[in-house]
Amino acid sequence: MKQFLRNADEEQGDDEDHRDFVEKLSAVYGEEWKRKSPDNLLDIKYFSEIKEIFQSQRKTLTCGSAKELSAQLVKYTRSVSRHGEVTRYYWPLVKCVTVRVPNNDLLQHVTLVDLPGSGDWNKSRAKMWKRIVGDCSTVWIVTEINRAVAEEEPWEILMSTCSLMGNSGQCQRIHFICTKSDYIEDPDDDADVRAHIVQRNVTAKEEVIKRYGSLNQVKKHFRDDCFKVFTVSSTEFLKRKRLNPEDTEIPKLQDFLKDLNNCHSETLNYVTGAYGILCLMHGANSTEGTEKKADVCAELEKNLNHQLGQVKKAVEDAHKAFETRLIEGVEKSQSSCERSMNSFLDRTAYGTLKCVVQKDGVHKTTKGKQINLNVKLASCLTDSIDEEFRKTFPNEEKCGSFNGVISSFSLDTERLLKENQSLKLQLIFLKMEEEQIKTKLNKIIRERKKTIYNSLTETIEERMLDCYKRAAEFSGPDSLKYMRDILLEHVRVSKDMMFEEAKAAMLKLLNDLKEEILKILQETMRESTELSLKTDDNSIPDVPTELEMVKRYFHELKRSSKELECTF
What we know:
This protein has helices spanning 2-6, 16-29, 38-41, 66-77, 126-135, 152-165, 193-213, 216-219, 234-239, 245-248, 250-260, 263-284, 293-346, 350-358, 373-392, 401-404, 413-419, 424-472, 479-533, 544-567; strands spanning 138-144, 173-179, 227-231, 362-364, 370-372. By secondary structure, the protein is mainly alpha-helical.
């Protein structure tokens, strides 16, 4: 704040950060900030309603109704002008607002995140925004039906975030939601108004789907069936004057949220672990099948080595495929980066360029346009691997990473169980361990793939940081020319190594993932085999009653899990 106020006079004009800061100060202090020193502005009297800020604590608002909560929340989320009334708004100080709705089955174990559109250019939320988008399994893009195709903002959001949601995220579905679908201008016949609305909504869906089909960059990250369009009307859903509830499509979204509830899978995973442990405990007290244990152990070891070989081959095949494509990407990057940088600099004004270099190459303009010079420089690299990356690390739950080699990993315990009933409990334990370890690995891969994909852009950013810092130091006459010269010269000098380093960084992360997967599989399954077939300990308590109870729960959950897969 002190730095800003000191330089306020000379930073006016085209500096977008200046306008950003003025808006924030005006929201919190009104016009009073212009007449106060920075020390005076930190007086606690300005924060009497939000004292928690000084201890970095959460502020909790508890309300009995949505209307009451909305009234209390407004000053923490936006500015509302009222003539003649001086009100302080604290949205510039708020990173996140979480609303908890008690006893709502529809949202049980489901988190709805309302993210800003392209018009929100508050840079302090940028990192959180990027992280949250990458963690969303479904993204809803909401716009009014009468401008769903024509308005550029929703499509710009989709274009600018497709890689965050896709290859560097875990989004499985994009829902394009057209609101106010009950509105229709001057219907000729009131009796036919429903038919007019329904037909207009069908046409709107077709037009939206057609436009989506033209977005080749987005489709590199998502299959066509990942995209769905809904035409909704909350007014008609509540009042039911002209449309049936089904026509509003809100029931479809409600059903989707219910199906999205992942509590069931978490419960199944927990019960699977408990079932396996109880089988191990009960089996340790059994003397049956002792003569078969050595042979079964030998076969399990053989199966494990074979499966590890399959996993290693699948990951190495992916490594080779990525290396081939990245070599092409490096060549394209080296031949086009200077031209691309020149094109960017020629159409970028001083104020915008100043913001870009001050923020390490990333800036959002007041009009909502996202500028990321690092992404631009890395685009030939990411373009070269996008389709292969989606095949290797699909976001869809039913498709496994590395051509499904992790999902299909098995020590053939099902067959061994049928052939060795006397070792049934021990082999059930191993089967449960297989399921547990695959669940664990799939979670690791889901998070690590984001790091692997983002490493290309992050490496470029790291190599550009010194250049940004030097360019940001210029001010006064000819500073635009100096900034441009610094950026161009750095790219020219660095291009031979910078893109090679980005390629090497990504391939190293992929190789590290391979080593981690193999280590976890080998150590866990060998340890589990030791526990199940080489443990005979009568001091372990026998648990037949508990085993039967958990076994029943396990099979019930497995049955309902298959039903959910069929109905989803």
